[in-house]
Amino acid sequence: MNRKITFVTGNKDKFQDAEVILGKYGYEVVQRKLDIIEIQDIDGASIARHKADQAYTQLKKPLFINDTQWMIPALNDFPGAFMKYTNDCFTPSDWLRLMAGVKDRRAIMREILVYKDANSNEVMYKDVVGEFLLAEDGVDGVSSDKVISFSGDGVSIAKSRDTGRITTASHQGTTSYDLLGEWLSKRHS
Question: What's the pLDDT score for residue 135?
Fold first, then answer.
């Protein structure tokens, strides 16, 4: 028997990933796009919890949201919760200049998934470690997608999308959607 759960997102790629992965755990995922105010905070989990609270106030049914926070260790974990804004300002060349000569080229994408219902407000984290490339690669996506690789073989996120390959967490095993599926399965067993 499939149980329904609402994913509050306007991102079709995130929805498709969640639909496939949570389907393995017996959940039918329903996508809802809501007008939600995104607070500004250095802590990505605070932002994600606030979004889930707003969504639950509107829908009054079990739901989850998935947000990301990016950390570049060589830059004191910049840009954190502000990656979207940084990508709006930076070109791929800007990223490459910023990382020029930097030995620690890691880029960590922290997925923050918040599940909310009448009795729970569960926060789950999944870190995905990638690296900055030495040159721009690929066409599709935002500026950082063209200079960061999660694949382990030096192919950018953008190039992975261009060629139809999966791009992020699924390169490194368990996703935040798996964490949610496992948690829900234990909760309902």
Answer: 97
